[in-house]
Amino acid sequence: DTAVSQTPKYLVTQMGNDKSIKCEQNLGHDTMYWYKQDSKKFLKIMFSYNNKELIINETVPNRFSPKSPDKAHLNLHINSLELGDSAVYFCASSSRTSVVGELFFGEGSRLTVL
Amino acid sequence: GEDVEQSLFLSVREGDSSVINCTYTDSSSTYLYWYKQEPGAGLQLLTYIFSNMDMKQDQRLTVLLNKKDKHLSLRIADTQTGDSAIYFCAEYLSGGYNKLIFGAGTRLAVHP
User: Fold this and answer.
1) Which residues share a beta bridge with A112?
2) Biggest alpha carbon distance in chain A?
3) Which residue in B7, B29, B98, B99 has the most chain A C-beta atoms within 10 A of its own C-beta, making it the best mutation to test that interface?
4) SS (H, E, C) chain B
5) Across residues B42-58, what is the average pLDDT?
6) In this complex, is the C-beta atom of A12 within 8 Å of any C-beta atom belonging to chain B?
7) For residue B83, what pLDDT band results from cuts at 50, 70 and 90?
8) Which end of chain A is more exposed for a tag (fewer CB within 10 A), N or C?
């Protein structure tokens, strides 16, 4: 059973479109994250939710809107896609009862904007 | 500031030791980590060290921490082809919810 699963794994779309990436974790964790990994492999945190509440919101354009319907799900919606949005987006989760700083990552969603 | 730096590439021969280095900027970091990313996969926690430790050994892995120089290293003994991956150094920023700052990753290539 996949612990942190993301869909879709690959997404190719045109500039200006709106797209969503979904994430689900079955670990019972209370905190979930979105990270962006660019072509040079830099990994930057975008958002973090704890029990459906937004707790970290880095300097991300407001075209990006996370939504957490419950603590097991964290979705990412992106409006008006731009070329620079092309990246691999990783969802992750963590628990206060596990090792501090131990994040469990999904396999990533590779977004290509043409 | 929030910055973690690593060299981008390391090539070693199978059986040799690999040493991956990292420097970080936040002296208040309480934990430092090494994550491993295999091709097409997400990152996985490999090992971590608490800031009051100088060294941690875990089988083939040795983590060294020089807090004065803010330098962290990961040594892999007897490197195998299965160790080929990208290794990310990360620091934990206190005062927040598990805010990890990652380096750019070091790609380790192991050749016969």
Assistant:
1) A12
2) 42
3) B98
4) CCCEEECCEEEEECCCCEEEEEEECCCCCCEEEEEEECCCCCEEEEEEEECCCCEEEECCEEEEEECCCCEEEEEECCCCHHHCEEEEEEEEECCCCCEEEECCCEEEEEEC
5) 93
6) no
7) very high
8) N
